[in-house]
Amino acid sequence: MEILDDNFYLSKNDCYITDPERKRSFPSRFFLSSKLSFYPQILWYVLSNGAKAAFRQYTNEDWVKASYGILRTLENVGIIINVSGLKNISVFEGPVVFVGNHMSVLETFVLPCIIQPLKPVTFVVKRDLLHMPVFKHVMRSRDPIAVGRVNPREDFKTVMEEGVKKIQKGISIIIFPQSTRSVEFKPEEFNSLGVKLAVRANVPVVPFALKTDAWGIGKIIKDFGKIDIKKKVWFRFGEPLKIQGRGAEEHEKIIKFIQDCLTGWKKEEPNL
Fold it and tell me: Which residue of 20, 44, 137, 148 sits 20 to 30 Å from the alpha carbon of 251, by its own alpha carbon?
């Protein structure tokens, strides 16, 4: 796949950070609220890509380009994005299970342009996303693993069966083990589903941590929250973990990795 930005994926680089000298777009500077310039552009991406997907013309390259466009839109309104540990995505040649925390809708939109150019990937998603107006076409085109989040036993069976099939085809899986998006990370709500899939499929887990509350959770519509340009966006990918036994030790390592990242990032934004 064509790499969209040489600054994003140079083999000698292990990280990406928004150019601190990058100027905000004119609409972002013109409107008093970042939401007024940001959301119309996001809606355009959703509508244009949804229409293409509805006619079964939506490719992996289209997905990456749209994801990358959204990343740039975030930067255009003034948000600094910091991604590290990029080499850990592809240090293992085959498919893996990516396991991380879930904070906002931002990661759903941005992770594809980070991972897909290096590894074919799809998500474990809530079944509701496959029925959302317009966006459902994009989501269905990615052939995700859909779960209901009502019956844990049924969800477990679905993820194990479909996940193993996709991994055998060379497709990596992104799993958010939390039941819902949350700014606060609670280890007791972070299940071991991703680790169990890795055990079943005999592949490593790549842990990732993120801080994406710059795109807030809305009070009325969850996906349309406050856009806070004072907050930075952080992603970090850890070293692949080869699961031993039932994976209890590795699950704890993933939790500690996420906690340590969140603690460190909080220290770097003392005034927020």
Answer: 148
pLDDT tier for residue 28 given thresholds of 50, 70 and 90: low
Q: What three-state secondary structure class fits 227?
A: strand
The pTM score is 0.92
Q: Dump pLDDT digits (tens) for 63-95.
A: 999 999 999 999 999 999 999 999 999 999 999
- Residues 6 or more apart whose CB falls under 8 angstroms from that of 78 comprise 24, 28, 34, 229
Helical (H) or strand (E) element with 81: strand 81-84
Give the burial class of 28: count Cβ atoms within 10 A of its Cβ; 0-12 exposed, 13-18 middle, 19 or more buried: buried
Sequence spans of domains, the chain: 15-268
Treating both helix axes as pointing N-terminal to C-terminal, what angle do 60-76 and 106-115 enclose, rounded to 10 degrees?
120
Judging by DSSP bridges, how do beta strands 81-84 and 15-17 pair with one another? antiparallel
What strand order describes the sheet that includes 145-147?
A: 15-17, 81-84, 233-237, 205-211, 97-100, 172-175, 121-126, 145-147
Tokens of 86: 């990029």
* Rounded distance between C-alpha atoms, residue 232 and residue 13, angstroms: 20
SS3 126: strand
Residue 108 — φ and ψ, nearest 5°? -65, -35
